[in-house]
Amino acid sequence: MKKAxxxxxxxxxxxxxxVPVRRPDPSPAGFNLREFGxxxxxxxxxxxxxxxxxxxxxxxxxRTAVVPLDDGRTMGSTEWMLEALIKPHVxxxxxxxxxxxxxxRRDLNLTExxxxxxxxxxxxxxxxxxxxxxxxxxxxxxxxxxPADRQLLTLLEGIxxxxxxxxxxxxxxxxxxxxxxxxxxxxxxxxVAGHARRLxxxxxxxxxxxxxGRLDQSALIAMMExxxxxxxxxxxxxxxxxxxxxxxxxxxxxxxxxxxxxDSVHSGEIHPTVPHLAAMSTAVSRGTAAEFNRHVSEYKAWxxxxxxxxxxxxxxxxxxxxxxxxxxKAAALxxxxxxxxxxxxxxxxxxxxxxxVMTWGLAFAVHTADVVILWFFQGRPPIATLYGSxxxxxxxxxLFGVGVESVRRNVVGVVTSALVGLLALVIGRHLMPTGDGxxxxxxxxxxxxxxxAHVGAMTLGAAAILLAGVIxxxxxxxxxxxxxxxxxxxxxxxxxxxxxxxLAAIFNATGTMLGGFWADRVWGRFWGWDPKENAALxxxxxxxxxxxxRRFQPGAERTRMTLAxxxxxxxxxxxxxxxxxxxxxxxxxxxxxxxGWLMLLLxxxxxxxxxxLVPLRNWRSQLAQPTSCAR
Amino acid sequence: MIxxxxxxxxxxxxxxxxxxxxxxxxLAQADGASYQTQGRYxxxxxxxxxxxxxxxxxxxxxxxYTVGAVLLLNLxxxxxxxxxxxxxxxxxxxxxxxxxxxxxxxxxxxxxxDRSAMRLTRGASSNYSEDLLxxxxxxxxxxxxxxxxxxxxxxxxxxxxxxxxxxxxRVQEFWPNAxxxxxxxxxxxxxxxAHGSTRQVAYVxxxxxxxxxxxxxxxxxVIEVLAPSSSLGTWIVSSRxxxxxxxxxxxxxxxxxFGAQRxxxxxxxxxxDARRDVYEGTDIPRSIWSxxxxxxxxxxxxxxxVIAINAPLRYSGETYYQLQLNADGxxxxxxxxxxxxxxxxxxxxxxxxxxxxxxxxxxxxxxSWLPPSVRAGAAPAAKAPSGLAxxxxxx
Lengths: 631, 395
What we know:
- The complex is a heterodimer.
- By secondary structure, chain A is an all-alpha fold.
- Chain A has helices at residues 4-18, 33-37, 50-61, 77-86, 88-91, 102-107, 120-123, 127-139, 147-166, 172-179, 188-211, 217-227, 230-236, 257-267, 273-286, 289-305, 309-324, 326-347, 350-378, 386-407, 412-430, 448-481, 487-523, 531-552, 557-588, 593-612, and strands at residues 40-43, 46-49, 67-68, 74-75, 97-98, 117-118.
- Chain B is an alpha+beta fold.
- Chain B has helices spanning 2-5, 8-28, 34-42, 64-83, 90-112, 151-154, 343-363, 372-375; strands at residues 46-49, 58-62, 114-121, 125-141, 144-150, 158-162, 167-175, 178-181, 189-195, 198-206, 220-226, 231-237, 245-249, 252-278, 285-296, 301-308, 313-315, 318-325, 331-338.
- In chain B, the strands form 4 sheets. In chain B, strands 3, 4, 5, 13, 14, 15, 16, 17, 18 and 19 form a 10-stranded antiparallel beta sheet that branches. In chain B, strands 6-7-11-12 form a 4-stranded antiparallel beta sheet, with no helix packed on it. A 3-stranded antiparallel beta sheet of chain B has the order 8-10-9, with no helix packed on it.
- In chain B, helix 5 runs antiparallel to helix 7 (343-363).
- The longest helix of chain B has 23 residues, at 90-112.
- Chains A and B meet through helix 23, helix 24 and helix 25 of A and helix 2, helix 3, helix 5, strand 15 and helix 7 of B.
């Protein structure tokens, strides 16, 4: 039994990893939303499943991935997307727009009862007011904006995105205006079929007009009457449904349904995607689930037959990945590993050691899988975004932890690296409140090899400093509060910290130099003193101070360890703080919520650095007083 | 003195003040105006601080040049103290040389870096770029400039004589940065000049001189132009954008105005095409590029090149980067950078890398898990300077 226990723990953890966190969306009335959610579309510059498109849009608009309904049911992202695309009158009543600020609620005449989430229908009367206010606010300086003003801008962004989504498949806004409040009952399939019938005569008439021949005016008008509203879809639609003719060559040259219909006039034929989508739309309006499911599978088969099998597979994998949420699993396992390791430290049972190492190893494996999958979905190393680099830094710290633990099997590597990994995953989730971290990156970052080399090295350096900091923290906490820090253990930890910071020095110096070369190539100067460059420089100088102190003052172990513990603060401030400064501080001053989080995060390290300043004679562990500099 | 200069305590002091300087200089950039602020902290000997509107300036921090110079001397002194002039421990020597080259390279680059903007419109060619900061007084006829005087040279007032054109410029008034107004406003000075029977009146409100790239200065001056025999007239001169003053001399139509200082190149560039590619379905640019044609009569070159973000063009010792692109793609601005110090960081990087490798190679055998103090037992490890000792060091 005793022998089997760790394996049992491993088995239970494995099962926990495989079970998805998000349950699949319940399909209302037999609609196969699962299948529909896996269809690939292009949104935000990336081919993604409809499920992810809905999820990312909801995260941007509502800051949550699902919509809780009044009847206690939770509406998933795919179902919400389907409503927004095809049943606008229903989607308009979903409470998805957060208005937290009571001043703003009063301004927009919103009832307090429904707070804090409002539907598009509730906001629509105040839309003009929101637009005018937003224009006024954009004129004012960033630091003059009140929180209510900033929320209004976010609200308008959400409304615009919602309207773009709503007009991605059929011209819903136009249809709603035409129907004047009556629920839209639109037969897109019939419309497209009619267009197909009228197309030969209409296209001929258009050609005649262009070349000055005899033209059939009525045929042209009949065709344009159907097409005109779809101009909106072509112009604003957020989801691009129509894949390129040659997906292997032109990966993301997808087009909107509106563009495809416009092009039909010139080519004389309708892109095959459009009738499929139209049939789905009509099936949804009619409420015929069987029809809908049949058209979804037919469309899927068509995509597969036309060279989009890879995109289909990738989309399905992405849906599976978002349901699995490996980062949450890894975080939970890291926590479990820390608990096991701490209990082991108190009880010293080898069984517990094995359990700790196993959960830690499993967590690392899941974490690794997360990084690899993220890489696969983005098609580039996942370090271009702050979220990605945080996850990768945590992963690298655990990798270093594996090195530490394999040399001395005393849970130091397990506890410290699991803590860093856990924190990175938790912070990472807080950094991605408005998307899945797979957004398109700005032009300058769109250069894979430099990005890999520079950001990669910097991330590894940050990871090593963080791990060293946590080990130093362990030294200080053990030394001040317990009697377990013997001089041998102390020297061992000191050696580990030195190794890690030495490693970090090499990574950071290399990374910064590479960054300079990159900047020279891109901006024409090696070094420009901008906040990000300064942050890197700060870390390097800090490392240099540590190494100098160790070189010229080898006896000052306590000072050195305290300095090493402060590395947690230095790297967090340099890395996260500066990012907040360039995107946040610069515009909002110190008022951002994230800054509060960062401060909260730094309380722990600050307390530990404070503990480290306690004179050695007050430590509970008896360490040798430094003799080297006695005078 | 030498003892102090070669002390590792000085190194730590330098590094500590560098931390404070970098931190303060970064925080200061949160308020914007970054180029100017960077100059105050990182291209200066001393960082001055003016509290409120008192007009007084207090030195608060050593600037980057001071910290860098002291660090440089300190590194050299430490090396000399330990090894004299011998070449022992070549790894450390290379590492130090690399660091010094890096510091010197940055200072040199600060001095020599020359950036200007080349504005191109589609189909048209240009052979000059405009300085992002410096202005000059230009007297030009239809074919091009006849006399140019840097704005800074006008600050001394007095007379400036141009030998070739035989024109003399007499500076009566000069404001390096000012607003030229048509009506009286508080704080404005009235200036008036006579042209025969008519009088030109304007009001000048001086503005503080800025060294910020984004906005630039708009100088105003009252200038009399003299031919060898007679005065050609006196004018209130401001930027070319507001309109130049015109006069005739030796049957030539001349105009006088301030404009951005121009750098003429021995070749010309023609903008053939420029575009901004966005990520499908977004407004985020994926790539911004300009296709240009370079015609260089001196080298006999005539070819096309594409300049894009992340892909600059290096030509005749200068580098051209894609800076801005008008929304309609009709006009593109290239950033011309002339940085003679550009190879220095690369050389420094190579030296540092080589030094590190050598050091690692020599120390690989001596690596130990334990710090030197433990390795050496209870014996005093190194002759550590007292100032770095722990406070609670037993007496």
